[in-house]
Amino acid sequence: MAEKVLMKGNEAIAEAAIAAGCRHFFGYPITPQTEVAAYMSKRMPKIGGVYLQAESEVASINMVLGAGAAGVRVMTSTSSPGISLMSEGISYIAGSDVPCLIVNVERGGPGLGGIQPSQSDYFQATKATGHGDFHMLVFAPSTVQETVDLISDAFDLGDKYRMPTMILSDGLLGQMMEPVILPEHKEPTDDKDWAAKGHQGKRAHNVVNSLYIDPKELEDLNFKRFEKYKHIMETEQRAEEYLVNDADIIIVAFGASSRISHSAVDMARKQGIKAGLIRPITLWPFPEKFIKKHVGHAKAFLSVEMNMGQMVEDVKLTVKDEKPVHFFGRTGGMVPTPKEVLEQIIKINGGEC
Amino acid sequence: MTDMNILLAGFGGQGILFTGKVIAYSGLMEGKEVSWLPSYGPEMRGGTANCSVCLSDAAIGSPLVTNPDVLVAMNLPSLDKFENDVVPGGLIIVDSSIIKKKVERTDVKTIYIPASEIAENAGIKGAANMVILGKLFKETNFCTPDNLDKGLQKTIPAKKMDLLDKNRLCIKLGTEN
Q1: Into how many domains does chain A fold?
Q2: Bridge-based pairing state of the strands B70-73 and B4-11
Q3: CATH at B78
């Protein structure tokens, strides 16, 4: 087995993408994501890849569309305001059925906001990245190792379903170092029968396009795409469960806030409170199956997020009115402490703190 | 050793982040779960740097250390800022060549070590961080001497490996003073 090395989340993202056969990176620097681009700028020229710092995020994402349409594994990375700038291009990519990887190392918003860790782009990532009816597969890792592992999956599933995928990270996971085992390298390939990559007149043209003037044609295409989304919702949900089987109070938390919630669950258990944690790994599709299993025995749910309350809406849609769903969040770059989360658990449990 | 949350703080350029990385790597060599998290952004650019390091037998929750078991203060603003956050019974290590003030807390153990002076007298200016690391190692035994040395070797970049022995010397001086 490969050796465990200590690596920064952002650098691990870049190395994992290279290992997954990505040789095309287009981006524009922004804190707290810049190490991804910096790492790529060093490595790509040495391995025959392309690193290009574009003039803007708008340009970057359209370069991603072009490279993806030609069939290669391609990615970009940015932080929150950068995704807003890319949203038109991401919609074009989804409308063209082109796979690519988009990394968002979230910072506090709205506006230029701040540069400290945040999870306030949940809505943007899962519901409204750009105009039109579309989804991306969205993965929310909670450790550097999981980030590395999910990048390979994101590329594979993006290719399988011909759609953009997103790794939703944050300033905490991007900046921290943890031990990680890097994956084996895969050979890059552009072997896709739909790709527009030149054919020396040997077959009909492949056309990659998101413009459909005829409404019937566009509706049919959207119906077809949503059949695919339905299949993905049924088969690709992922979550991790921790001490939920006998839990009265179940926290739902992803990414950085799930780590803090995990500690809070341990603290609650020490006090005799039956707390548990469901940690969504896919945010779209939202892992409702994992939550539904526990609606019967749980007394209450608590969504812990680094925002003003976004994923809690999906938890409520899943739990319906069967059990109370509470929310606790910090925002603007503030990171909740395990003690703060424990206080919420105690309160919901009917105790004083 | 039980779990340990360490906060290192000082000026940019004192090797705060590097020291944290040596501790984290040594912990990894020891078979611990470890995390390292730097301050980033305007705070760092304004001249102060700090770094959270967690060593644990179990998976690490928040890598952000808000209440350290060990605080290393390498300048006055850092001591002022973090002194009250240290857990009762915790440890504060102060570079007394730079910080003349005394720690006000009485419920923590405080060690004053003139680390900058010691490093300079040994002819290795700027290696106060390694003297402090030696002291921290001696006080807490967060890993074996062998794993500390491995952690150091893992952390020093290949092109600066000629400085390995100087770093080793400063760590040794830290354990002896």
Answers
A1: 2
A2: parallel
A3: 3.40.920.10
Residue B12: which residues within 8 A CB-CB, separation 6 or more?
B44, B47, B48, B49
CA angle, residues A250, A157, A71, in degrees to nearest 5: 150
Q: Are residues A66 and A177 in the same domain?
A: yes
Instruction: Give the tens place of pLDDT for each residue, A51-110.
Output: 999 999 999 999 999 999 999 999 999 999 999 999 999 999 999 999 999 999 999 999
Domain that holds residue A326: 240-348
ipTM of this complex prediction, to 2 decimal places:
0.93
Task: Pick the residue from chain B with its C-alpha nearest to A258.
Answer: B61
Of B24, B40, B64, the CB nearest to A6: B24
Sort out which chain A residues have CB atoms less than 8 A from B25's CB and list them: 6
Q: What are the tens digits of pLDDT across the range A189-238?
A: 999 999 999 888 889 999 999 999 999 999 999 999 999 999 999 999 99
Task: Give me the mean pLDDT over the A38-60 stretch.
Answer: 98
Judgement on whether residues A279 and A231 belong to the same structural domain of the protein: no
Are B37 and A179 inside 8 Å of each other by CB? no
Q: Which residue of A has its CA nearest to B54?
A: A178
Residue A252 and residue A301 in one domain: yes
Residues 135-194 of A with CB under 8 A from B: 171-172, 175-179
pLDDT in tens, B91-131: 999 999 999 999 999 999 999 999 999 999 999 888 999 99
Q: Full-prediction pTM beyond 0.80?
A: yes
CA distance A276 to chain B (A): 14
Report the residue from B36, B40, B66 with minimal CB separation from A177.
B36
Task: Show residues of chain B in contact with A34, CB under 8 Å.
Answer: none
Contacts of B157 (CB under 8 A, 6+ apart): none
Of the candidates B37, B42, B62, which has its C-beta nearest A263's C-beta? B62
Q: Are residues A56 and A181 in the same domain?
A: yes
Query: Which of A31, A176, A266 shows the shortest C-beta gap to B37?
Result: A176
